[in-house]
Q: What sequence folds into this?
C-alpha cells in the first residue's frame, strides 16, 4: 500500500461531508477496482456528472443541490486516479478506451436508465467517447469546456516536463501552495476560490498514486479534437458551454466545432475561464436546467 502524505484534509471530511441530502460510497467494479460516487436526490431521472483532470466530484458542488431540487437523482463520479476512486499504477488503464470503460462499468453497477450527462474538460472527452459508442445511454449531454472539440494549449509542454524518468518524483511536487497557483491560472475574471477549495483539491495528494495517475493521463489520454465522424455519433441533444478566457481549451475553435454535433447549442461566456461550474455556476445552471427540462 502506498504511503500517505500527512497534513491533508481527513477523508471523512471530504465533500459531501456536512452537505444535506448528499452522501458518498464506493462501487465495486471488475478486477477488484473501486469507484467513489457522490449521490443524492429522489429516484427520478439520473444526472451523471463527470469531472476533469485533477478534479473530483467536488468540482460540481454548486450544481448538485439545484439539480436535485428539480426532482432528479444526481451521481457525481470520481474518475479513475482521482478523488476517492482507486488509482492503479498501470499506465494503460489511463488510455481513452480504459477511461471510457471505467465510467461504463460504474454506470453498469448502478443499473441506470438513460441519463443526462454533465461533463467537464477531460471528463468531456470521456463522455464523448462513451456516448459516441453508446448514444442510447444518454438523454442529453452537457459539455463544460470539454476536451475533444477544440485544440488544447500546453499539453505538449506538460508532457515534455513530465518524462518517465522523473515519474518517481512527481508525487512530491504538489505542495499546498501550488493549488492556488493552478486555480488562479484556470479561473477567468468571473469568480474566486475559497480556502476550503484549496483543501479539497489538495486532499487526494495524500496518496502518492494520485500525482502518478495525473501524469499517466497526460501521457496516455487523447486530448486532440474528435473527428467529424465521431462527433456525428453524438445524436443526443447537447449543450456546450465555453469560457471566453479559457487558458486551456481554445474556446472559439471549440465553439465553431460544436456545430458539427447533430443537436448542439453552444454558449460562450465572456470573461469566464476553464472551471465554469466553479466560477460561474449561476450561468451554467441558467443554461443547464432548461436543457434538462426540455429533454426529459
A:
Amino acid at each position: 500500500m502506498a504511503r500517505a502524505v500527512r497534513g491533508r484534509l481527513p477523508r471523512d471530511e471530504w465533500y459531501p461531508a456536512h452537505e444535506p441530502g448528499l452522501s458518498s460510497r464506493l462501487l465495486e467494479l471488475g478486477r477488484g477496482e473501486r469507484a467513489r460516487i457522490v449521490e443524492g436526490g429522489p429516484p427520478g431521472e439520473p444526472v451523471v456528472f463527470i469531472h476533469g483532470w485533477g478534479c473530483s466530484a467536488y468540482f460540481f458542488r454548486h450544481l448538485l443541490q439545484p439539480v436535485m431540487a428539480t426532482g432528479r437523482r444526481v451521481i457525481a463520479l470520481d474518475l479513475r486516479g482521482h478523488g476517492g476512486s482507486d488509482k492503479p499504477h498501470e499506465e494503460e488503464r489511463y488510455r481513452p478506451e480504459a477511461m471510457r470503460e471505467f465510467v461504463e462499468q460504474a454506470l453498469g453497477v448502478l443499473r441506470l436508465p438513460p441519463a443526462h450527462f454533465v461533463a467537464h474538460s477531460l471528463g468531456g472527452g470521456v463522455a464523448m467517447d462513451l456516448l459516441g459508442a453508446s448514444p442510447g445511454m444518454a438523454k442529453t449531454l452537457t459539455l463544460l469546456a470539454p476536451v475533444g472539440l477544440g485544440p488544447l494549449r500546453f499539453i505538449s509542454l506538460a508532457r515534455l516536463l513530465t518524462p518517465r524518468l522523473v515519474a518517481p518524483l512527481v508525487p512530491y511536487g504538489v505542495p499546498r501552495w501550488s493549488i492556488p497557483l493552478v486555480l488562479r491560472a484556470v479561473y477567468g475574471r468571473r469568480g474566486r476560490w475559497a480556502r476550503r477549495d484549496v483543501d479539497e483539491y489538495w486532499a487526494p495528494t495524500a496518496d502518492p498514486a494520485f500525482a502518478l495517475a495525473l501524469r499517466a493521463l497526460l501521457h496516455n489520454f487523447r486530448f486532440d479534437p474528435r473527428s467529424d465522424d465521431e462527433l456525428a455519433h453524438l445524436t443526443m441533444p447537447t449543450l456546450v458551454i465555453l469560457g471566453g478566457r479559457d487558458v486551456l481549451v481554445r474556446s472559439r475553435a471549440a465553439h465553431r466545432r460544436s456545430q458539427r454535433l447533430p443537436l448542439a447549442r453552444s454558449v460562450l461566456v465572456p470573461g469566464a475561464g476553464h472551471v465554469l461550474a466553479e466560477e460561474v455556476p449561476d450561468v451554467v445552471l441558467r443554461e443547464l436546467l432548461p436543457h434538462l427540462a426540455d429533454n426529459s
Remarks:
- Residues 1-5 have pLDDT under 50 and may be disordered.
- Strands lie at 22-28, 34-40, 46-50, 73-77, 115-120, 138-144, 238-243, 264-269.
